[in-house]
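Reopening this one. Same input as before:
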Amino acid sequence: MSFKELGLSEAIVRAVTEQGYNSPTPIQKQAIPAVLAGGDLLAGAQTGTGKTAGFTLPILHRLSGAGAQPASAARPIRALILTPTRELAAQVEESVRIYGKYLKLTSAVIFGGVGIHPQIKTLKQGVDILVATPGRLLDHMQQGTIDLKKIEILVLDEADRMLDMGFIRDIRKVLAALPPKRQNLLFSATFSDEIKALADGLLDSPAMIEVARRNSTVEVIAQKIHPVDRDRKHPLLAHLIKAHDWRQVLVFTRTKHGANRLVEQLGKDGITGMAIHGNKSQSARTRALAEFKDGSLQVLVATDIAARGIDIDQLPHVVNYDLPNVPEDYVHRIGRTGRAGATGEAVSLVCVDEHIMLRDIERLIKRELPREVIAGFEPDPTARPQPIQLRSGNGGGRNNAPRANAQPRSRTAAAPAGRTAGSGTGNRGAGSENRRGDNRSRKFG
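Same output, byte for byte:
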């Protein structure tokens, strides 16, 4: 099946073809006709499946048809796409620009962390499609610098992450400002009870799509556990990188401090690395991710929010230096590799403190992960588990209360790099969500 057969316009198909894509992914085959039909949609898809193009392409088609504004007319915002993080917002808006390059539509992206005035200027000039993070969007709403009364299409992208980051109140405030008659599209990697409740209140008789089993891990990813003592994790990681000549390794730590410390330790081993998290400046995150993508940076160390933002074709290795506190985050982390049919490897360094976390992860993915003890790094069988310190106020969302029956939720606010959005007109918005982070990709969708 081709994109043209899905009902997209020649101009959109031309732009897609120029990017080297000829056949839609499974989520695109299902989502594009559903969005073109005009009804609400509830879609479940793991990251890396092409879901962004699954909604941007049909939105571009719909807005470029009936009701398209003349170039000289003041443009009301007709489509609003909400994302949890600044870099994901930049990635989505870039997709809009790339695939809409032959259409007379404008787009902008707004998020926190930079000045609001260039964004105000852009919005005054008129925008057809706005991509935003909830925090900065609310800032504009409170200042009266944005008009959402003409919204025809609303997208909540990565809704599970938005809820996990504590955005539910912000989302409800935004929804209250939108016209009641509109098309609603909700995309989520997982379907928790909270997502189902949100969907029930937001969507009207939605079409439902799910292209990956709930909370599943990608089958092409080789997953492995290396048992190791807590104070031997760094030497083991350095050993694995050198012994296997790993050239592009994404490593996840539990805290920002842990990420910084690991980068310093690896540097002493002659391994180049940089950390990305909420305490890093936007320019530092941008530089780190750019160098990691082009291969000049060997190791990128990130905290959990980065799991949704780093989208790199052919990323071969993901390492869980620390297991995540929330089992679902394991799925999001390792989903950075094994994309678009490529194979990938996800390695977890697990000490005695993390055995309960590992059990919860295996219960979630419904499989036992293979263990492999590395010679010279055998764990002490007499070691006793110690409490894992979860620092509060470590960034992320607004709801930091621990779950009643589980480990406290991690709110480490990793903020991977994306484009630093400046001021501009038409297609160029500005901003950076100062509380959250995510990023763009060269992968289609």
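So the earlier flakiness isn't reproducible anymore. For the record, The longest strand covers residues 221-227.
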